[in-house]
């Protein structure tokens, strides 16, 4: 089957360090008969950027409880890695290829064509230590639309690590299924599933990172801005697993990433340094949200108290005063800045209702792209 073709150079723009714009063109699909628009991307060169001298910019002093994993993590650039655990396990070309495939398959699905069934006869076990609407529905629906069968295993179905050891769960589920997706608390569970399982493992979320979400975010930015390179992405809020995944993407694809968070809530120091040491993107950690969002192309936030932290909600609301993404903060960003949120949102807490419902909010296209990005990730993991 011939599908819509995209240039990886088109998605990413030209190589880091070049000032030349390169085209980003979606070519018509002979299957769907539809085509997407053409646009251009910009390139950010960290070697040419002057150091930021404004007051308030700091080096990361991480106090995050979640540390950068050191056990079982593959080295960057290993595109043959089984499954999808961390974005920086793969090189730039592989990440861009996955995003290209996501756009192609999305075009097919949106056209109503259902003849592309690469997962026919395949099954996926979905482990949910943490419940989720978007993760379950996007994975289950996406796998079904491409011909597969997904099996939901909720928190009480396995009790991984309590009723049965993770390494045993990995071996048993691998004998029944072609793929395992897991949404867990401990990142070590993800690493152990991948270590002991004999089928690809997809990280649906852990307390350390959330790679599928950031791949969906990257796809959304590409669709709306024409590319990712050179874009200034500003995250305002807790230095959590979303921030860690943005940092790991910045270690592979060049763009400008800023995290504005209260003191004591910075992202994991080792992950920040890993992104900086890659020498690919400009990385800034600050405690000043107003300064951070100036000139931003993307303003991004998440809940201040994630699942498992709800007992800290009142304390965090007090500590995060001044970090709400509201109309005043958005006014400091680029005039055409987009607002993003990984959802679920606590309206009136980390973001106002006006911002999330504004015309420049892409929160719901972003949520839809979870399915399309994950479809491409699963295709890659299965070698299809």
Automatic annotation (TrEMBL):
Compartments, record wording: Plastid, Chloroplast
Entry annotated with the keyword DNA repair: no
Catalysed conversion reaction: carbamoyl phosphate + L-ornithine = L-citrulline + phosphate + H(+)
One of the record's GO cellular component terms: chloroplast
Keyword terms: Amino-acid biosynthesis, Arginine biosynthesis, Chloroplast, Plastid, Transferase, Transit peptide
Domain Aspartate/ornithine carbamoyltransferase Asp/Orn-binding: 229-380
InterPro entries xrefs: Asp/Orn_carbamoyltranf_P-bd, Asp/Orn_carbamoylTrfase, Asp/Orn_carbamoylTrfase_sf, Asp_carbamoyltransf_Asp/Orn-bd, Orn/put_carbamltrans, OTCase_ArgI
Enzyme Commission designation: 2.1.3.3
Domain called Aspartate/ornithine carbamoyltransferase carbamoyl-P binding: residue spans: 83-223
Pfam families per record: OTCace, OTCace_N
Keyword match Amino-acid biosynthesis: yes
Tree of life domain: Eukaryota
Class of enzymatic activity (EC top level): transferase
Region (Disordered): 1-22
GO BP term, example: citrulline biosynthetic process
Any GO molecular function: ornithine carbamoyltransferase activity
Principal location class: plastid
Family from the record: Belongs to the aspartate/ornithine carbamoyltransferase superfamily. OTCase family.
Name of the protein in its database record: ornithine carbamoyltransferase
Organism: Picea sitchensis
